[in-house]
Amino acid sequence: MNLTLVLLLAYAAGLIGLGVWIGRRVESSGGFFVANRRLGPVLLFSTVLAANIGGTSTVGAAGLGYLDGLSAWWWVGSAAVGTTVLALWIGPRIWRIATSNGLYTMGDYLEHRYGGSVRATITVFLWIGMPALLAAQFIAMAKILSFVAGTPHWAGVLIGGIVVTAYFTAGGLLTSAWVNLVQLLVLTVGFAIAVPWALIAAGGWSALVAAAPQTTDYMNFWRGGSSGWIYLALVAPNFIVSPGLIQKVYGAVDERAIRIGVGAAAMALLIFAIGPPLFGMIARVYDPNLVDNEHALMVVLTTGLPTMVGALGLAAVVSAEISSADAILFMLSTSLSKDLYKRFVRLDASDAQVLKMARWAAVGGGGLGVLLALVLPSVITAISIFYALMAVCLFVPVVAGLYTRLPGVPEALAASGVGAITLISIRLADLSGSSPWLDPTLLGIGASAVAFVVVAAWRSSKAAPVEPS
């Protein structure tokens, strides 16, 4: 067993210990779901940023940087754009509604605004997509362990699943917020040291230019290969209406904490977004013929860097995967226990029973994520499934519900259904390769908005009084 693996396993064990210790204070569903609405700007900043930096924004984005160059910035940069909208407009507005009406989950909001049928429909959609998102984080962790220690893929996935599930199940959002603070510190220090060190060790910017493939767009910031500004359509909406992020916002102590904490997280993402693509581009200097482009980040952290610096960088990456995974477990456990179990299965369930179900749902969700991680081929493939589904099903109903009062259940269901059907149809037709404007997610959101407006207009015309002739 090498030193790097020992350090990573010790770090993971420390996170579990911290989570279990903090989790002893959580004795109610309010503490588990929304941390009793006591998160100030610092904890909100750390838990939102930690949730936003995961397997796709590190291992996945570095892989995109290896293939596509500078335009891979847009993968994480688009998340920053969405988080800015959440901080300034959506977050404060939905927080006011949540605190006034005792809402804990995204499902609570959907039922408050539209009714139980919309809540049930969206919850089912999310449960179809969220395990794939969780699997992406476990795949990323498995790739790290496999590269640095030769650990079998299944073993790396299992280790990741055990670590995340153990500490999150102990205390939910309260545990995550404090553990995320530690993870973010390791992440910040690790990347702040590893990125410039790796660039210098590889020979500087000129070495990256020399190692770039002979394509005209590798150094193009706006679009290169499959990457570029089009990621705004796929990624940004998810960081505006993500159930996990919305529920973290519910935990804020006030609106000021949301604007400062979530806003600071958005600014941090704008800066962080360049790190992973740079790692991917640096990897070409060392190995221009990688079989698996998602190994690019590990190539850099284990080549040309001192052992301790590389280990710190790997710990930073592991922190990212774990923190993002616990945010997904948060969505899974709360949606099942509150949106399905409490609302449709046992309406008379006590607070203790809901809390128990939330913990069991976290265990079940972690297990499902592990199983999917064993069959899905890559981090980006896994994450794209969820991002696309959540964007087309949630974006229009949530945002429209905050700013319009009249539309109801038919509009919300039409928007989600038409969006999902359009997404699937465009993917099956494989039209996106011919033009970025034929992106399945972009067209799905557009179709969802059109369906919402059309149904609203039709219902309005039906309800209008008929003037006597």
Describe the structure in your own words.
The chain is mainly alpha-helical and 469 residues long. It folds into two domains: 3-382, Sodium/glucose cotransporter; 404-464, no CATH class. It contains 20 helices and two strands. It has helices spanning 3-23, 29-34, 41-52, 56-68, 73-101, 106-113, 116-149, 153-202, 205-211, 231-235, 238-241, 243-250, 255-272, 275-286, 296-302, 307-345, 351-373, 379-403, 409-429, 440-463; strands spanning 223-224, 227-228. It has a two-stranded antiparallel ribbon. Helix 5 runs antiparallel to helix 13 (255-272) and helix 8 crosses helix 14. The termini are far apart. The model has no long low-confidence stretch (mean pLDDT 87).
Briefly, what CATH class of the largest domain? Mainly Alpha
Radius of gyration in whole Å, from Cα?
A: 22 Å
Q: For the record, what is the CATH homologous superfamily label of the largest domain?
A: Sodium/glucose cotransporter
* Amount of beta strand: under 5%
Number of helices: 20
Stretches where pLDDT is under 50 for at least 5 consecutive residues are: none
Number of strands: 2
The number of domains is: 2
Helix coverage percent:
over 70%
Shape summary: globular
Widest sheet, order of strands:
1-2
Instruction: Measure the end-to-end span.
Output: 88 Å
The residue-averaged pLDDT reads 87
Secondary-structure arrangement, i.e. CATH architecture of the largest domain: Up-down Bundle
Order of helices and strands: HHHHHHHHHEEHHHHHHHHHHH
Largest sheet: 2 strands, antiparallel
CATH fold name of the largest domain, please? Sodium/glucose cotransporter
